Predict the 3D structure of the following.
Amino acid sequence: MRILLTLWLAPIFCLLVWYGLSYNDWNFGTTIFSRQLHDLVFGLYGKILGVDPSVVPIMAAKAIALDSLIVVAIIAYRLRKKWWPAVSGLFTSKDASALPPAEPAPTVK
């Protein structure tokens, strides 16, 4: 589970850090965080996809959101045995008098 989260979160974190630094041109003297490389990368992606380069970050954000939902669904499915009894307990009546009387189980001879 930790490997799944690491493999999912690490590239997203790196992309967000790069995008934030390059968008604001906080390059620290390096080319990789420069605004020129930022514009070049998104211009290249825009040409490949055939869309305006200013739309590419929005498309990437939507893709990250969809991937995040899929990862959360996988995690929820794997952990359902731990949290489902607690969730199903919320929908049962806590007032014992509201419950019908229990019938004894039939005995097998």
The chain has four helices and no strands. Helices lie at 2-23, 35-49, 56-78, 80-90. The CA atoms of residues 10 and 16 lie 10 Å apart. Residues 56-78 form the longest helix (23 residues).
